[in-house]
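### Sample
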Amino acid sequence: MDVGDIVGEYVGELSEYDAVVPGQPPVAVKQNSGYTLLMNAKSKAKKFVYIDALRCGSITRFLSHSCTPNAAFVEFQTGADVKVLVRMLVDVKAGAQITVNYGDETWFTCMCDQCWSASANDSLQDDRVTAVNN
């Protein structure tokens, strides 16, 4: 796939939520099920909108997380309709894994290639410090 290509649409059940802290500026708290996506667009009632692809959705709900993704979720609006598409950020060869960044607030410890390498280097550094101190 080439940069700019559309992988597919992120679809699922739509849910609306009010601001979660009354009296404070509207801030949405993402309640991850593993398949929820908070949209930037708000509903006609000015509520936060989530797409929940847990029980239904397209193949895009199975994309893995990476801190250095090769694709991204992008909102496109046509009139009153808003769609979330997955668009390629870089060229990838056939058979390559397509990844997106789930955002800063994940419900898991990231083990993407970048974080795994950093974790392995930290572990190696810890081992070296332990060896020097012993």
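Residues 124-132 have pLDDT under 50 and may be disordered. This sample (SET domain-containing protein) is used throughout the tutorial notebook.
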